[in-house]
Amino acid sequence: MKVVTIKDIARLANVSVTTVSRVLNHRPDVNPETREKVERIIEENSFVGNQNARGLKQTSEVVGLIIRGRSNPFLNSLAEAILDCAASLSDFFVTEYIDEKADEFETALRMTKQHRIKGMIFVGSLIDDRVHAIHGLEIPVVFTTVNAMAASLKNASSVAVDDRSMGRLVGEELLSLGHRKIAVFGSNPVAGDSLAMRFLGFCDAYADRGLTFEHQYYRECRFSMEAGYAAAREYFSNHSDTTALFAMSDAVAIGAIRALKDLGRNVPEDVSVVGFDGIDLCRFTIPRLNTVEQPVEEIARRSVNLLLDMMEKGAAPRHILVNAFYRSRDSVAAPHILP
Amino acid sequence: MKVVTIKDIARLANVSVTTVSRVLNHRPDVNPETREKVERIIEENSFVGNQNARGLKQTSEVVGLIIRGRSNPFLNSLAEAILDCAASLSDFFVTEYIDEKADEFETALRMTKQHRIKGMIFVGSLIDDRVHAIHGLEIPVVFTTVNAMAASLKNASSVAVDDRSMGRLVGEELLSLGHRKIAVFGSNPVAGDSLAMRFLGFCDAYADRGLTFEHQYYRECRFSMEAGYAAAREYFSNHSDTTALFAMSDAVAIGAIRALKDLGRNVPEDVSVVGFDGIDLCRFTIPRLNTVEQPVEEIARRSVNLLLDMMEKGAAPRHILVNAFYRSRDSVAAPHILP
DNA sequence: AACGATATCGGTAACGTTTCCGGTAATAGA
DNA sequence: TCTATTACCGGAAACGTTACCGATATCGTT
């Protein structure tokens, strides 16, 4: 199978490969007539540049995308938005999914070497101690859905919702309805990360009313329906007086609602449930899920702009907080057993 | 940032680049001592081969993966299984997501040129008239979740569940419970594709009992919750006597259940619903969804084996039908309004 | 002792593209 | 008319890796 190369195009167009390359890269210094002729020949032969050869030159601006979890619909929609939004801006994207326990620094480093990547976006990453190793990458990176300010990495920007405010909003919503015994299902919070911030905000709402959140109402739980189910099953078997649940992910909330049903408790009549992220599914569950909707498009747009600024203009890292939106639906009600 | 290349390793190990390459590719003709030394140096410098340079050589066996729809959980889990299963077998995977309306031949052709791909797996593809263009690819391809036998492409294998049998099984299940007015939400069926087969099987079940399926009960519907919702909303507003629904995708079923609820009809008391695919979510919805579970791991394993056989041994295309499993849960019951 | 077989290794030419440097021709300015 | 500038283009060297071919050394055979 003969594949057509830039050399073939050059021969057919009676120009040098250099000129074809110039046309391909929209360089200004080529005669309009020549350009047109070359473009026609490219079109006729449906020539597509070989990405391997391009990538071999150290100059190409390939950017990497690391996504934690292929099955997470929220992260998937975010990744999709990023790719859409960068389609016209960057040369090429190489994306890689990693699982929950994978080390993102290791992955990033390997990708950098394997593909000569010049910038990286992390979708749904964790900020923990190991993240400081990102220093070693020496390429600009952007973290999404997590505020990396606290990590103070010199080559890392971040775009995230204002988790603390949103946590507070959820707390206020539930407290103002009269709930007092509220469970929180978070996951593995590290000082300064998104989850910790949401939780802090949630506690702020308590403090506003002179209340304090008691730790016995908190459960650690991975971000899956399965885990949400298991956590709720365990928790509500032992805490029958709890009237509300704040799940820090929609998947967890959906698993929990199912577990509550199996325990003979209805949502929202017996227990109110609030999720986080705002995945499509929330609009179709029974009951429809109250949740905090993350502005996926905005996060995507700002992330790629941030990365491009850093890559092309050498801009300094920035940490952007965007606004989220509390969406009220059918999974929250006042507790009918008043204290 | 200085990246270490095979040349650096060769220099540090006092061998030629050729020898390092041999070590990298596990060639037999290298002295064990030398091999060990080189491997040590590679390890010490955490050297990773440049994929671009590898891909530039026409010999590397890169395989492509085309997935229709990033947000489809079933296809995502299938893609994940394929990647897992091929991780050790192939040199490198390049995956690309396409949307509903994209032409898979165009995409495949571009990928082939752009990345010098030697084999391709389609995850969740459509078999329509255009697919014959895959001929032009001249590389072995495997279609998953669709039986490509009818298309009789000389370079294409396929792995799919026995759609016709499963369609029949669903039909039997519902008919034997006493349902007679059953809606079917499929999508855009082309002669010989998966959906058409499921539908044919469903009609078989009718025929077995001397009944015939009437076309007024059929609705076309894209594979999303949104579309399932809209279709159900329209359909059940006009067909209040229908007591069951066979949705050819779990997402459609879930959207439909929500629509039924909004119409004041409960599942399964008023309407029974059966889905297709067996995504995780089915176990957590209210009610839990009856569905046909596709054997994701088996489809994945057989697909990569098929492709590898074709790529390496030049094996002839084969079309494999695997067994699916009807999972009975809470969304199906006997109709309480008997005819 | 001469020979062939085998194990182990190195030099070099590709792969397809971009970039650097330089060259020619046309045009403008003096 | 001469020079300087500009527009446009081409040759050749890289990028990192692998494949091909050939070279040497060792060892067993006759």
Report on this model:
- Two copies of one chain form a homodimer.
- With 339 residues, chain A is of the alpha/beta class.
- The first copy, chain A, folds into three domains: 52 residues, Orthogonal Bundle (434 Repressor (Amino-terminal Domain)); 137 residues, Rossmann fold; 131 residues, Response regulator (Rossmann fold, 3-Layer(aba) Sandwich).
- The first copy, chain A, is 40% helix and 17% strand.
- Chain A has eleven helices and twelve strands.
- In chain A, the strands form three sheets. In chain A, strands 2-1-3-4-5-11 form a six-stranded parallel beta sheet, sandwiched between helices. Chain A has a four-stranded parallel beta sheet with strand order 7-6-8-9, with helices on both faces. In chain A, strands 10-12 form a two-stranded antiparallel ribbon.
- In chain A, helix 1 packs across helix 2, helix 5 crosses helix 11 and helix 7 runs parallel beside helix 8.
- Chain A starts with 5 loop residues before the first helix and ends in a 12-residue tail after the last strand.
- The relative contact order of chain A is 0.12.
- The model of chain A has no long low-confidence stretch (mean pLDDT 91).
- The interface between A and B is large, with 45 and 46 residues.
- The structure holds a DNA duplex (30 and 30 nucleotides).
- What's the mean pLDDT score of chain A? 91
Quaternary organisation of the protein chains: homodimer
- Low-confidence blocks of residues of chain A: none
Query: What is the global morphology of chain A?
Result: elongated
Rg of chain A is 25 Å
